[in-house]
Amino acid sequence: MSTIRHVLLDADGVLQDLPGGWYAAMEPYLGERAREFLHQSWEDELPMLAGEGEFLPLLEGHLREFGVHSPVEQVFADVWCRIDRIAESFTVVDDLRRAGYGVHLATNQERNRAAHMRHVLGYDDLFDVSCYSYDLGVAKPDPAFFREAARRIDANPAEILFVDDNANNVDGARTAGLAAVHWDFTQGHTVLLGLMEAHGVRTGSVGRPPSSPAPRGSLRST
């Protein structure tokens, strides 16, 4: 087994959460039709996750179809940019860096939500290499996403441990030769530290008291 030198982390469900969930965020605009609207929007957004086309004009059209006349920028901010950073996850990021690991981001995002994460949430300054699907031109779980991530990190895939809350993404990473674990923040961070330690990743924090799992608000796993 190769020595792990880098940790590659998913965003939604691992590093960040949408408090209350996507449906609750959309309900002030659409009530009981929020679920229908979001699933249609997510389906149509898929090409944008790979950098093909622009999401906001598409979202604006969907809003008009559903009778919502609020500015698209307002709806996007209230729903897509309603993000809470998970403090315990970023403590793990800091612990990994102090232990000498490269710490990187791997997330499926269209360019507008990615811009919010990069510049408003400050992710550009928090990770050594950030791999956004729109920028890579391919989305998880395609193994090509992970091969390109490894190239940008400048590491052998076997030297990278990937963490994601979506089992299909974990499978895609393993197909590309990465070590990978399936975890989300509701399991608690002591579980994450144990999973990483099983791959030889030690931060010196495995023995700390477990955090209480929080109710999961993010219903969309990418």
UniProtKB/TrEMBL annotation:
Source organism per entry reads Nocardioides bigeumensis
Superkingdom per UniProt = Bacteria
Which portions of the sequence form the region Disordered? 202-222
Entries under SUPFAM superfamilies matching the protein: HAD-like (SSF56784)
Q: Which InterPro entries match?
A: HAD-like_sf, HAD-SF_hydro_IA, HAD_sf
Sorted alphabetically, which PANTHER family does this protein's record hold? ALPHA-D-GLUCOSE 1-PHOSPHATE PHOSPHATASE, FLAVIN MONONUCLEOTIDE HYDROLASE 1, CHLOROPLATIC
Name under which the protein is recorded: Hydrolase of the HAD superfamily
A Pfam family reported for this protein in Swiss-Prot or TrEMBL: Hydrolase
Q: Where is the composition biased (Low complexity)?
A: 204-222
